[in-house]
Design goal:
By secondary structure, the protein is mainly α. It is built from 5 helices and 4 strands.
Length: 196
């Protein structure tokens, strides 16, 4: 099988149910999810130590689920059969976040990406995930999208934040706090969380 097809040489690509320009909002959305999945693979490659077995296993699941999200977005609405992304996937992310945060030190200030290489890689995943979410929101203005994809991406960025902090904790490396800011988080449950 040849890798190159030459069918996209003039700036169009195939989606399930037709062809669109390569800069179409649909392609931007699932293409950014594909980009995110590459960064997830890179982050997982930095977590080979046995201390990170749980995070590696979780990232392997995330990689599969991001492919599901991209698949859901690759269909034109008229050709969609059954969506692959469903609420249980987001609920699992919430369980993972809760477990990670139970061990992470309390947040007092905003934190910057970094600390350890694995944490920095997971923060890259977080920010690319936010961009993917924005691309899907933009697509939803002009096309029908599976709403579970938006929920999943929103929660996934929170997962990456918690996982980055957990990676630093396992390596005994401090999170990098934003030192020019005051304490903004407390135990008050009415305060807004760092995610959205």
């Amino acid at each position: 099988m040849r890798i190159y097809t030459k069918t996209g040489d003039l700036g169009q690509t195939s989606v399930i149910g037709g062809r669109v320009r390569k800069d179409d909002a649909q392609v931007e959305a699932y293409g950014t999810i594909d980009e995110l999945n590459s960064f997830v693979g890179q982050a997982a490659s930095l977590l080979q130590d046995d201390r990170f077995k749980d995070l590696r296993e979780q990232l392997a699941v995330v990689g599969q689920e991001l492919f599901d999200c991209g698949s859901d977005l690759a269909y034109t609405p008229a050709k969609q059969q059954a969506y692959k992304t469903h609420a249980a996937m987001t609920e699992r992310l919430e369980l993972w976040i809760d477990r990670l945060e139970a061990n992470n030190p309390p947040l007092e200030r905003f934190i910057l990406p970094g600390g350890s290489p694995p944490a920095a890689a997971l923060h890259v995943c977080r920010t690319v995930c936010r961009r993917a979410e924005r691309r899907v929101v933009a697509l939803s203005d002009t096309a029908e999208v599976n709403p579970e994809v938006l929920k999943y991406l929103n929660r996934l960025s929170d997962y990456f934040f918690s996982a980055a902090r957990a990676a630093n904790l396992k390596l005994r490396v401090d999170d990098v706090e934003y030192v020019r800011g005051a304490r903004v988080f407390s135990d008050d449950k009415n305060e807004q969380e760092p995610g959205e």
